[in-house]
Amino acid sequence: MELKEAIQKRASVRLFTDEKVPFEDIKEMITRASLAPSINNSQPWKFIAITNRELIKNMSSVVQNKVEQIFPHGNLKANILVQNKVAKFSTFFMDAPLVIAVIMTPYEAAVDDLLSGTALTHDDINKMRNYPNIQSIGAAIENLLLTSVDLGYGACWLSGLLIARDELEKLLDVRPPLSLAAFVAVGKPKESVRQREKKSLEDIFEIRE
Ligand SMILES: Cc1cc2nc3c(=O)[nH]c(=O)nc-3n(C[C@H](O)[C@H](O)[C@H](O)COP(=O)(O)O)c2cc1C
Q: Concatenated DSSP letters for the chain?
């Protein structure tokens, strides 16, 4: 598939068939994700491909519990609807045949060598540079999403379930200095994939000559 076609076809898919994703395809997705640019070529990521139904179910339960805990609806009808919506968008991955956990690993920046004798820390510089480690992970995830389209799958980038980050890190045995950055749900789309409306070029683009 042409790159342009993959970019144009990509849309978030949240309903999947039961068809399993073969190991070779998972490997291809992660391989192409790993080719993304990253700060100082640090490649500050790891990927856990989760296909175990029991584990996926447990993950969705901890997220569901957390949604109910931190966004109480107080028995108000409108709030109940919102809570249901938040829960739905944070737990629909439970029916995906594949959930990929994207883990952030520590990185060393070239400027770190210049920090001794200054009041600045690695974290200060990371913040000043607008979190290049997180930006790098975003690039890897986009590669993953486009690869899933190229291989005939649908996928959805997920950050909603990180409201239960501590519980999920425990469940997946992700320990410091590693941390969970995001998830991606992948599978064969159950229904035709619909592209969402995007802003017009005039709204988002200007050229300064
Ligand atoms: C950083 C990030 C986090 C996201 N988290 C979620 C999520 O938790 N749940 C969800 O259903 N969709 C999530 N999405 C998907 C967006 O809702 C989706 O990309 C957006 O609505 C545009 O639709 P499209 O992907 O079909 O173009 C996330 C997307 C991004 C980029």
A: --HHHHHHH--B---B-S----HHHHHHHHHHHTTS--GGG---EEEEEE--HHHHHHHHHHHHHHHHHHS--TT-HHHHHHHHHHHHHHHGGGG-SEEEEEEE-----GGGGG-TTSS--HHHHHHHTT-HHHHHHHHHHHHHHHHHHHTT-EEEEE-GGGGGHHHHHHHHT--TT-EEEEEEEEE-BSS---PPP---HHHH-----
